[in-house]
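Give me structure tokens for this 294-residue protein.
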Amino acid sequence: MRLLLEVRHEGYDALLDFHGGPRASWITFFSKARLKIGYRIKHKGFLYDIRVPRAREDEDKGGFVHSVENHANLVRALGVAFEGSAIPPLVLPDPAKEEVRRIREILEEKGALRSKNVVLHIGAGNEFRDWSTENITGLILRLARLPGVKIMLVASGSAVDKRAEAEIYKEITAAGASGSDNIISLVGQLNLMEMKEVISRAALFVGPDSGPMHIAASTETPIVAYFGPTLPAHFAPWNAKAIIIEKAMDCRPCKQRRCVTADFRCLRAITPDEVFAACRNFLIPSASPEGPGD
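Here you go.
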């Protein structure tokens, strides 16, 4: 309700709903914006003045449609044309000067200004995208053995992420890696712009299909992303240097309401060794990074 009141107070000329979920669609409808643009969704399309189809597959090209391409169609419906018809890379605002200064002070305090920093998103948002504490811990222990590498743990601040952090630290302690100067937790300490600044200063970002992964795509930092219930064809980091790891399974993609195998194997079958091997491409000078989507 607070957000809705703020949106109504601004009196926007136009509002684009990129999500289409229950809250987003009704906020759009009651926003008082003069022009409301959204997807042509069953039972919700009437909420918008301009309704745009949201495609999952392109029959002409014989492939999947990335979500960015669908979002770009909403922008086009507003009357905006992309130069040369190409969709540009993701761009986010720069952090404020005080945010940049704060991140520099944190990195200096942790001795991480000149190290190879790996930003690892340990959260997931829901259990379907949770790689598991065991897998994350296994990757951390492997990365921590690389010379000159520091691992920075980040999360979105959700309850799922906070529980994940507690469990991961418990397993790290049990594995004998507690107290390592190479493992730095920034969980709960960063806003989104500060997270972007930390990622932009890193040698590598690692994590699941998530908000932080897409923030990473707005920087020059390479990405290693592991996908489970969602498909990279729809949600891979846009125009970014990335290695995508996934397992081919008949149950993918799913709506993330019920796991038909009850063990989330589409994601958790990806091993720490597989992710570590992809990370080495960007952290070991002699290794040659593979291309996006490999």
